[in-house]
Amino acid sequence: MRLSAAVTILFFLLGCGHLARASECRTIRFNPGATSAKIQGAVQPEDQQCFRFGTGKGQSVRLAVQSKSGNVAFTINDVADNRDRIEFTSEKKVYELIVYQNLRSVTPDDFTLSLSIR
Question: What are the pLDDT digits (tens) for 22-71?
């Protein structure tokens, strides 16, 4: 019986890993009346940063990440993988994107993330 309880707890903890990551996502907010935002940050080696943004159906979304090294990329769940820029027509939903170093580095990479929704 103890083994069964331990296995159940282990599966629960493994299954909740996405909850910890989801709570670490930062929501990108626009200033009143603005249609774009810029976020500056740094990606540590072997780390990633998570961001969220919401859209209405049929909006034009432009997203780009720039870094001096050219080694920073992003993935948007269910949209694109390993990009430094993208433009797409949105659904009505909240998108989650992950920013990371494309090739592992020994130093942090500073980046600027630009998001435009029209």
Answer: 458 999 999 999 999 999 999 999 999 999 999 999 999 999 999 999 99
Largest CA distance in the chain: 59
CATH number, position 96: 2.60.120.380
* 57: containing domain: 25-117
Residue with tokens 């709570």: 23
pTM of the model: 0.77
Query: What count of other Cβ atoms lies within 10 Å of the Cβ of residue 67?
Result: 19
pLDDT tens-digit series, residues 61-110: 999 999 999 999 999 999 999 999 999 999 999 999 999 999 989 999 99
Decide if 77 is inside a domain. Answer: yes
Q: Is residue 16 part of a domain?
A: no
Q: What is the CA radius of gyration of the chain?
A: 17
Domain total in the chain: 1
Whether 8 is covered by a domain: the verdict is no
